[in-house]
Amino acid sequence: MNGQVQKNTLYVGGLAEEVDEKILHAAFVPFGEIKDVKTPLDQATQKHRSFGFVTFLEREDAAAAMDNMDGAEMYGRVLTVNYAFPEKIKGGEQGWAAQPIWADADTWFERQQQEEEMKRLEAEQKAAMQEAERIHLQKMAAEREGEKDDDTSSVDPMAMAEAKALNQNTS
């Protein structure tokens, strides 16, 4: 599970069947102002699954409620009260349990487009790097050729004068 806890939302486990959101609210309201109370329902039985969530407006109130209510008895059952983990039940961006199957489609398409854009940019960058390397290698080869040309074109002036004199003597 995700390690990040929600400091103002409490998980309340061990609820008896008789406990509903009103009763849960009434049990926790002495510790501070409550923003929300939820008892997720079992889809088959339409009864809560013996746990719920209480969200306080203030973190301090949630901490006080947890300290006082963890291990307390309600309707003959011992409660377990801890900080709640973020709601992410079966996957998807926000959990699939409370959403239709297509709810995640928009974010999936967005992620796909972002991935394709990243691949395109990476390919462009790779092509640009290869082109830059090719140009650099051509430049280096041209410089080497230029050095060779320079060696052959820089003829000794004395040798040229001798060749000129020989040509005049033979003609």
Automatic annotation (TrEMBL):
Region (Disordered): 140-171
Signal peptide: none
Keywords on record: Coiled coil, Isomerase, RNA-binding
Record domain RRM: where: 8-86
Pfam families per record: RRM_1
InterPro entries found in the cross-reference section: Nucleotide-bd_a/b_plait_sf, PPIE_RRM, RBD_domain_sf, RRM_dom
Coiled coil: 111-138
PANTHER family, per database record: ATPASE E1, RRM DOMAIN-CONTAINING PROTEIN
Protein name: Peptidyl-prolyl cis-trans isomerase E
Organism: Carex littledalei
